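Appendix B, example 12.
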Amino acid sequence: MRRSMRLVSWRWATPEAQAVLATRNLASILKYYRRVHGSSQVQTGELLGYDKTYVSALELGKRQLSDVGSLRHVAERLALPAHILGVTDPVDTDHRSMIQFGVSTVRLAEVARQCGHATEAVAELWPLVARLEARARDGGTERDALRLLAHARMSLGTALGNVLPEERLATAAHWTAKSVDVVRAFDDRALITTALRMHGNELRKAGLIGAAVDRLTRAAAIAPGPEERAAVLPLLARAAGALGDAVLFDQTVREAHQLLDKVEHTSLVNPSALYEIRLRGLVSTGRTREAIRHAESAPPTPAIAVAPQWRVIELITTGRVHLLAGDSRGATQLLATAVREARAQRLPHQLQRVQRATADRLPDTHDAATHALAQLRTEIAA
């Protein structure tokens, strides 16, 4: 029964269902429920504890439920909030407070992550997600609660993607995948685009590159406007580069640059971020000499404040290219700075990138990254 209740929750979140629920008419709600689930009046009666004749009378409007106990019982069995059937109680007030608090929590957690405090973001999001998950399991079907659950799962997965080491990044992708499960019930292309974008990026970080390209390509295809498409393209370029698809990488980077003059810049959509993405993608697609030439030009000065972790990412990518060019001294300076900042911001995945870049080339920097990573692992375990 618990599994079926969860499926009901998702179906009540669709736009068609919301229109039916807005009528507050039990007869219409029962008919819609049976149609969506392919249930007979006998089966629906078994769910509610009524016989077929009584269900038929309710659907035809020949019988009415007026007592609070019966209305609350039906609402619970259909996985509906009781106020839909006219039952109001303190739970409704608690629900509204939870939504207001949850929206603020997600917004502040995202600010914290962007400011380099992903660990704090996880600490804030985890209790909220747990509460919303429990509500969904128990039949909480309110559209605003499910939308909040989707955003909270996305934010939690993205924050975990910052603070977990590579071997545990599948956990981050797991949470963003769960957000995709929810948003499919909403007729909101912008929301679906965002969920696919964030999930695709976490898949890439977890090493599931083909799946990442698939999700990000879909996100770009359904993006409702240039702002949403511009937010997808840099991540799609990264995934295409990691896949070794030079054609897709070049096409995506070119379009991303074209959109820069048409959309508002963000920490991801700006010339500085695209500089790093192009640099890394050129290396990943086997064009080392072109990457070295690209690195010889100074990176664009960010016109906006960017997230601190982007600075670490750029340092590591640029340092790697300096190593490929034979500039050990320049690489050492860049990567040593990256290690310090990655340790301060608790970014184990970036320390692992330094380890790979410096293995057998810069032993001191490699040891520093290894030591910093060991410290972070201890903190994560605690």
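The chain has 20 helices and no strands. The mean pLDDT is 88.
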